[in-house]
Amino acid sequence: MNTGAPSSPTRAQGSALPGNTIAITGLGMVSAIGSDVASSCAAARAGLTRWRELDIQVTDEDTLEAVPLKGQEVSSLTLGFEGFARWLRLGDAALRDLMEHSGLERPAFAQTGIHLQLPGTWLEEVHIQGSLLDRLPEGERERVRRGVDAERTEKREQLTRRFLPELLALNQLPLAPRTQVYAFGGAATFTQVLARAVEALRSRTLERCIVGGIDSWVDGETLTQAYEMGLLRTPNRPVGRFPGEAAAFVLLERLDSARARGARVEALLGPVASTVEAGHRFSGRSLTGAALFEAITTCFPEGARQAEGAELSIVNLNGDESRSREYGYALVRLQEAGLPTSSRRWYVPEHFGEIGAATGAVAICMGVRGFIRRYARSPSILVSLLDDELHRGAFLLRDIPWRQDEAGVTAPHGRQS
């Protein structure tokens, strides 16, 4: 029987990898289909969903009846909470799960940092531009824009002063202020967060780093903006995304640091790449897949031979026609370059809805749990992240080479004992 318990490297097996290899030694998550990482990923594996009716109603053009929009909501945590408080509730649950999962103890806190991604303001900016600024006389437009920008800056400053200190206090994590780093943006921004964390680890600025994301597309203001911009699927719109919410964290540390504290190494992080597209979802420019292709090829510096091990991909296709088309263009470019394109793909929004800034961390949780439970059936996983904004990103997850079954014999990928 496979217990799914992660293992630590033996001396011989661990010494085959450089000490600055980035190890994943902890996971934490909360979603609409699970209160922790194990149940969330197991539910996704089983194809479970938990839809709820949301506050916005639309008229079905066929029946002329009012029909509520549907989404995936962590109602046990977030019902009655909005904005800052909602994110804090989600983040607290996911961070508690990470702490329990990783075995991180107080002596390690002094050398631990946290890099957190929260939603950016792109959706709000595009919505205000189309619903307000474009309708104002040109002379008044700039004055209103300055007022909106000032209000947005003030909110951001207040958020960065309060959010991480309050989140860490809830979990009794006294991390130094200098180690607390924020990022704001959509799904693909997460690769920049990962890259900065890896740099801090390899430069020995930190011994270990908690990296994660929190987002809610079912929160009132965000939900309204997404609906009015035509991004959501409705009875009258057969393509589009279903909103969701989630929080997820992963613990990264150098392999030598993980060995020193006797941590359980659950997977390895491979190359991380971030690129920028020429236009965004509403820029009017054609998205050709070139930026995503560049990010993916950067993850395979040795070319096709190295890419053959990535037999599974995790992608954030979400029902949006433009995003699917862009990913298709990227696949064509990969084929033309002689790089294999995995026929096996997992889609994060299929299970959790659109979760924006939490997407990258959730993808890591899905992939690592797939390694641990042996259903990934691939020695490495390519994670590709598209976005409504300009960023595109990709990174590799690698299974640990010393994963063993209970008999102490290394089991081939895909075998369940």
From TrEMBL:
Gene3D superfamilies: 3.40.47.10. InterPro entries: Thiolase-like. It comes from the Bacteria. This is Beta-ketoacyl synthase N-terminal domain-containing protein. It comes from Archangium minus.
